[in-house]
């Protein structure tokens, strides 16, 4: 079943990972990714998404909070502004230009995704490094805390954290979505740190008298980055989807002057059957972007993990 | 085995105690605290003070927590303020728990029944169009917000298939025995009642099943790929065993361990997903109670349901660990 070429690849990659993991594994991963159509699809989607969200203030034809079409909204007959000249997607329930809201929404969505991932990463990095690098009682205390967090289903934890705030806003959403990622990152880093504590390169650095802090940051952390990057890419997708779920439960940001896709989707639940387009557009955007991040993350995982190469 | 089980159960007690303390502190830290939550906007200073005394909120937090634990041990978790105002939180849980079990069980069943065969076939045809399409589909499943999918099923598919979209059962005369509506219908031989309840389960269960399906499919595919490379499969092939025997006895059996672990871990995501799908389909389960509880800030109910969700999650994963012994004899003898 195992063809010689595949076996050779595998040995090569294993050798590469043990010799000088950083450079050669990254380089070989990049060689694989550059030719992977799946990765390139994901990367194209995400590049477009980032570009649009950065340029959206200039791309959007109208102010997303301006109820300019309000006279076309007829509450009694359940009517909203139709597609018309200058408004390619019509208006929303408050008579605001829907196309502009979608464009500006990309920016807020990117902010929610990136900030949530960064906060989760920073928290997990701190806890995981502490536990993995020092071991002993620090490890025990930190990991028990992480275990308590992990024993609660993560989305349920995000719901509970949001419910703690009397007045939810954009930042409470980000915090709720971010905190549930902390234990995952922490476990990931701890495992990698523990595995390295007694490895040759750390032993050598210790023998040379390198300070513990420098060992952790210069020698151990860089070697743990692969799985962390993969996880971050996947978390970017979950964060955006989770934010939508929070809005759906009424735990999201009630201020919709500056829109966010999850909020746009969660807020129209009561008119889903009469104006499905108000849900389909933001949902479609979320699905495409989440898929883009997932495609990137999964191909990265395969490329960076020598064992998963087959 | 027994010692391991006992140790895990003691750990569970520890987790529940820490979690309940955290949740309890959270409840107290809320702006205005439970008094405002109970009295709402219409409170006068006198009524607030009276209720504070009556609830014992003027005492130190640890005294309150110990008292809460004492009451909790006798089954008193407080009274609902928003989900079903006036009902005891425990009653709400007991009433609704069977509904969520029915829903999650069917969702897992769908995910396993579709995910394992599909994962096996994709692995066998690795790199082919069937593999690519099903992997793509599973990635898409991860990217779609569950509640959006639920709405699409509700508004598009329900009319095409003629399936109900609201509640657990139509208003028909059904005898209640266990609280599991499908099971009740079977036990009392009221077949139309069982069928009716099952019809109400289908759409929410399909929506909910997308969460575990994507994961079950991908883990099965990866595990089967691993096993297919093993020497014992080649040996089985070369000694002339038939394909179904190899599949059943050598490939699937060895590939099932990671799949079973995944199913256990997915119960957590399933509980959270139930909050969303039960809300869409007005399905009177624990998830709907949580959704309403979050919306109306019904803290006694939230406290109990979140603790219960944690216990269920941990116990299911313990059972999964124990079931390894059934699948893998090597663990049994250890």
Describe the protein.
The complex is a heterodimer of chains A (310) and B (334). The relative contact order of chain A is 0.14. In chain A, 72% of the residues lie in helices and 0% in strands. Chain A has a domain at 102-304: MetI-like (MetI-like fold). By secondary structure, chain A is mainly alpha-helical. Chain A is built from 12 helices and no strands. By secondary structure, chain B is mainly α. Chain B has 2 domains: 1-74, no CATH class; 89-331, Orthogonal Bundle (MetI-like fold), CATH 1.10.3720.10. In chain B, 78% of the residues lie in helices and 0% in strands. Chain B is built from 14 helices and no strands. The longest helix of chain B is centred in the middle third of the chain and has 38 residues, at 191-228. The relative contact order of chain B is 0.13. The model of chain B has no long low-confidence stretch (mean pLDDT 83). The A-B interface holds A 1-2, 147-148, 151-156, 159-160, 162-164, 166, 237, 241, 244-245, 248-251, 262, 265-266, 269, 272-273, 276, 279, 283, 286-288, 290-291, 294-295, 298, 310 and B 15, 18-19, 22-23, 26, 29-31, 139-140, 142-148, 151, 155, 225, 228-229, 233-234, 267-269, 271-273, 275-276, 279-280, 290-291, 294-295, 297, 302, 306, 309-310, 313-314.
């Amino acid at each position: 079943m195992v063809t010689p070429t595949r076996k050779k690849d595998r040995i090569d990659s294993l050798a590469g990972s043990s010799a000088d993991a950083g450079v050669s594994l990254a380089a070989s991963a990049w060689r694989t990714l550059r030719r992977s159509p799946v990765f390139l699809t994901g990367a194209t989607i995400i590049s477009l998404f980032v570009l649009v969200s950065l340029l959206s203030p200039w791309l959007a034809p109208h102010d997303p909070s301006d109820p300019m079409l309000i006279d076309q909204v007829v509450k009694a007959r359940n009517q909203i502004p139709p597609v018309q000249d200058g408004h390619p997607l019509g208006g929303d329930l408050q008579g605001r230009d829907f196309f502009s809201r979608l464009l500006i929404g990309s920016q807020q969505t990117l902010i929610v995704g990136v900030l949530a991932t960064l906060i989760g990463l920073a928290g997990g990095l701190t806890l995981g490094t502490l536990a993995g690098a020092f071991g002993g009682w620090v490890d025990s205390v930190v990991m028990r805390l992480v275990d308590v967090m992990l024993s609660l289903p993560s989305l349920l934890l995000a719901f509970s954290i949001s419910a703690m705030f009397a007045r939810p806003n954009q930042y409470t959403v980000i915090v709720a979505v971010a905190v549930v990622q902390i234990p995952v990152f922490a476990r990931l880093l701890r495992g990698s740190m523990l595995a390295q504590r007694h490895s040759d390169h750390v032993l050598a650095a210790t023998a040379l008298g390198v300070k513990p802090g420098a060992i952790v940051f210069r020698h151990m952390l860089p070697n743990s980055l692969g799985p962390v990057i993969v996880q971050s890419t996947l978390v970017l997708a979950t964060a955006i989807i989770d934010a939508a779920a929070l809005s759906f439960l009424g735990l999201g940001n009630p201020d919709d002057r500056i829109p966010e896709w999850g909020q746009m989707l969660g807020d129209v639940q009561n008119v889903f059957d009469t104006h499905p387009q108000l849900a389909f557009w933001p949902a479609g955007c979320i699905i495409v972007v989440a898929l883009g991040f997932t495609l990137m993350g999964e191909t990265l995982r395969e490329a960076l993990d020598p064992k998963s190469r087959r | 085995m027994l010692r391991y089980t006992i140790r895990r159960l003691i750990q569970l007690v520890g987790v529940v105690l820490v979690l309940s303390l955290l949740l309890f502190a959270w409840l107290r830290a809320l702006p205005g605290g439970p008094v405002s939550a109970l009295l709402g906007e219409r409170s006068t200073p006198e009524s607030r003070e009276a209720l504070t005394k009556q609830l014992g909120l003027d005492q130190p937090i640890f005294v309150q927590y110990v008292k809460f634990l004492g009451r909790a041990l006798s089954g008193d978790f407080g009274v609902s303020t928003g989900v079903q105002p006036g009902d005891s939180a425990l009653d709400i849980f007991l009433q609704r728990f069977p509904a969520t079990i029915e829903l999650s069980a069917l969702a897992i069943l769908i995910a396993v029944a579709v995910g394992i065969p599909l994962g096996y076939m994709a692995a066998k045809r690795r790199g082919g169009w069937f593999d690519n399409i099903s992997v793509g589909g599973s990635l898409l499943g991860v990217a779609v917000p569950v509640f959006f999918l639920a709405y699409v099923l509700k508004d598009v598919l329900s009319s095409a298939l003629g399936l109900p979209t609201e509640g657990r059962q139509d208003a028909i005369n059904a005898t209640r025995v266990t609280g599991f509506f499908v099971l009740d219908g079977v036990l009392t031989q009221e077949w139309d009642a069982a069928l009716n309840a099952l019809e109400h389960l289908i759409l929410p269960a399909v929506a909910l099943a997308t969460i575990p399906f994507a994961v079950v499919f991908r883990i099965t595919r990866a595990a089967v790929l691993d096993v297919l490379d093993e020497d014992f499969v080649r040996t089985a092939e070369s000694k002339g065993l038939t394909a179904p025997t190899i599949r059943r006895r050598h490939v699937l059996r060895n590939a099932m361990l990671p799949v079973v672990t995944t199913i256990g871990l997915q119960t957590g995501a399933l509980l959270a997903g139930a909050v969303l799908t039960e809300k869409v389909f007005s399905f009177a389960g624990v998830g709907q109670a949580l959704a309403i509880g979050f919306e109306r800030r019904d803290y006694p109910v939230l406290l109990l349901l979140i603790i219960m969700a944690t216990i269920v999650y941990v116990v299911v994963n313990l059972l999964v660990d124990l079931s390894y012994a059934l699948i893998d004899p090597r663990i049994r003898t250890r």
